[in-house]
Amino acid sequence: MPEQLERASPVEPDPDFGAVVIRVAADVLATMFFEEAVPAPCDHSWVPVAISAHIEFDGSHCGQFMLSVSPATSLSIASGFIGLEPEEMTGNQTSEVILELANILCGALMSTLWPESSLSLGSPELVNSEHSFTDSMHCCFVLPDGMVAVSIGLYSGTGSI
């Protein structure tokens, strides 16, 4: 985790943050990836084996977006997006689709949370999935084949969620 987030003072979340993440994530997963996402209590025991993506963003708000997807869910999402059977998928294809999901979901969340802001998104990168989640800006979802976790962390002094 970047040092800035570890040192950042807690940012008071907008009370509607969870509702926004739930709505946007569910819409993106249903529309683009043909998956039904249902909000779920957080249990991160699956995260060490997840495929995780990270995106830095800056501008009127600066921070990072993190997405973790359980292995079975990542395969299901990727095969639905590409249009192949799960057994036809390669690990590289699955990773590329998770990076694309992170990019789409991050962009959709940023434009919904801060529609009047000026933000620049970095390129999504695969990361070690043993990152910590910020409870106040974090949501987990259950999908038919497993779990998805979405987190947004802001660097101190850059606005609030």
Write a concise keyword list for the protein shown above.
25% strand; 161 residues; Chemotaxis protein chec; 7-stranded antiparallel sheet; disordered N terminus; alpha+beta; 4 helices; 7 strands
Describe this structure in words.
The protein is α+β, with helices and mostly antiparallel strands and 161 residues long. The chain has a single domain, classed as CheC-like (Chemotaxis protein chec). 35% of the residues lie in helices and 25% in strands. It has helices at 3-7, 17-33, 71-82, 91-113, and strands spanning 38-40, 51-59, 63-69, 119-121, 125-127, 138-143, 146-154. The longest helix has 23 residues, at 91-113. Residues 1-13 have low confidence and may be disordered.
Large-scale geometry: globular
The CATH topology turns out to be Chemotaxis protein chec
Instruction: List low-pLDDT spans.
Output: 1-13
Helix content: 25-40%
Average pLDDT reading: 82
- Give the radius of gyration: 15 Å
Structural class: alpha+beta
Query: For the report, how would you describe the main beta sheet?
Result: 7 strands, antiparallel
H/I helix tally: 4
Strand content: 15-25%
The helix-strand sequence is HHEEEHHEEEE
How many beta-strand elements? 7
Total discrete domains: 1
The CATH class name reads Alpha Beta
The end-to-end span amounts to 19 Å
What is the assigned CATH homologous superfamily? CheC-like
